[in-house]
Amino acid sequence: MKTAVAFAPVTFAAVAAFLAFSATAATAADAPPKDAAGKNECFWSRNVTSFAAPDDHTVYVKVNLRDVYRLDLMISCPDVDWNQSVALVSSHGAGGSICGPLDAEIVSHAQGLGRQRCPVKAIHKLTPQEVAALPKRAKP
Questions:
Q1: Which mean pLDDT values do the consecutive 10-residue runs of the chain (140 residues) have?
Q2: Which of 16, 20, 39, 100 has the greatest number of beta carbons closer than 10 A?
Q3: Is residue 27 part of a domain?
């Protein structure tokens, strides 16, 4: 015996709207960040030449001796502002590309705590004017 199943048009509309929203959100989240000219802001972690951490939530990295990126950390990263060296780890492997916050993690050694992994929540490529305006302690 076959059973007829009826779907309300509202259910289809709700599902269609959800799927359309999900596809749009996934596409926007997967796209690499763009600069003002519409170019990708991606960089290779192996091209980082120096860093500065003015506090335990912010790390500036210099890439290829010319570009500076601000990395905002999800959590407080103990002693990152006192360390002489940190590691910038790409989720794509050693020296891999970093195009967004989910691609990057700072690894710092905190006194008494050992190695700390600090996830990145936001990445911003600084303009030359923003780099010039950084305090000396924040310049990588």
A1: 40 40 41 48 90 92 93 90 82 82 88 83 95 93
A2: 100
A3: no
C-alpha to C-alpha distance for 20 and 47, rounded to whole angstroms: 38
Among 137, 114, 133, smallest CA distance to 59 is for 137
- State how far the alpha carbon of 100 is from the alpha carbons of 39, 81, 123, 132, in Å: 14, 22, 6, 24
Within-domain flag for 54: yes
* Parent domain of 94: 43-138
Whether 133 is covered by a domain: the verdict is yes
Q: What is the pLDDT of residue 112?
A: 73
Q: How far apart are alpha carbons 83 and 124 in whole angstroms?
A: 22
Write down the pTM of the prediction.
0.69
